[in-house]
């Protein structure tokens, strides 16, 4: 078996994704957790690039690595955290979790062991962003526009609720 550059890149990106996920679960500092989550998201975007899905990779970087991570960071930083209790996890629970992980890994192995993919056409990797754009703005233009209207309404609602809370705080301070 020869090791191609694509295979080595996949293994490297997959390793970074798994390590980022494990660090996300093991770290206690919130900022460090978010940074490990960003490493996971960016490595998954790299795997999308290896699969010739450049549009999905760009969306992964923009939406998840950028927007969702920043929203999570602001949400965590702007909320109060007074709970300092640490729950102790018993040995039996760790054992059953380990058995569950092994069972899941075995099920995945059995599921992909003899998996055969049919021959795919060569047009799959050609101009996939253009194909997505044409389909989105021709066949799915109504759901696309409805989604943008729903997002706009949600944004306006969030602004109104934030303004209302700010006005309530000013009234409480003046009394």
Briefly note the CATH topology name of the largest domain. Four Helix Bundle (Hemerythrin (Met), subunit A)
Overall SS class:
mainly alpha
End-to-end gap: 77 Å
Approximate shape: flat
Order of helices and strands: HHHHHH
Count of domain modules: 2
Question: Which parts are unreliable, with pLDDT below 50 for 5 consecutive residues or more?
Answer: none
Please give a handful of descriptors for the protein shown.
175 residues; mainly alpha; Four Helix Bundle (Hemerythrin (Met), subunit A); 2 domains; 6 helices; 0% strand; flat
Please give a structural write-up.
The protein is mainly α. The protein folds into 2 domains: 1-80, NADH-ubiquinone/plastoquinone oxidoreductase chain 6, subunit NuoJ (Four Helix Bundle (Hemerythrin (Met), subunit A)), CATH 1.20.120.1200; 127-175. It is built from 6 helices and no strands. Helix 1 runs antiparallel to helix 2 (30-50) and helix 2 (30-50) packs antiparallel against helix 3 (54-77). The mean pLDDT is 83.
């Amino acid at each position: 078996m020869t090791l191609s550059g694509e295979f080595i890149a996949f293994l490297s990106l997959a390793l970074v994704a798994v390590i980022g996920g494990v660090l996300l679960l093991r770290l206690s500092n919130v900022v460090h957790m978010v940074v490990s989550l960003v490493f996971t998201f960016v490595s998954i975007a790299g795997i999308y690039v290896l699969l010739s899905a450049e549009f999905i990779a760009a969306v992964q970087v923009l939406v998840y690595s950028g927007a969702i991570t920043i929203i999570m960071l602001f949400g965590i930083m702007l909320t109060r955290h007074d709970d300092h209790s640490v729950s102790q996890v018993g040995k039996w629970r760790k054992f059953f979790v380990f058995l569950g992980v092994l069972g899941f890994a075995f099920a995945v192995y059995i599921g992909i062991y003899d998996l055969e993919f049919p021959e795919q056409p060569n047009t799959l990797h050609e101009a996939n962003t253009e194909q997505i754009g044409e389909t989105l703005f021709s066949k799915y233009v109504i759901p696309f526009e409805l989604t943008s209207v729903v997002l706009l309404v949600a944004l306006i609602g969030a602004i109104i609720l934030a303004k209302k809370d700010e006005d309530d705080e000013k009234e409480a301070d003046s009394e």
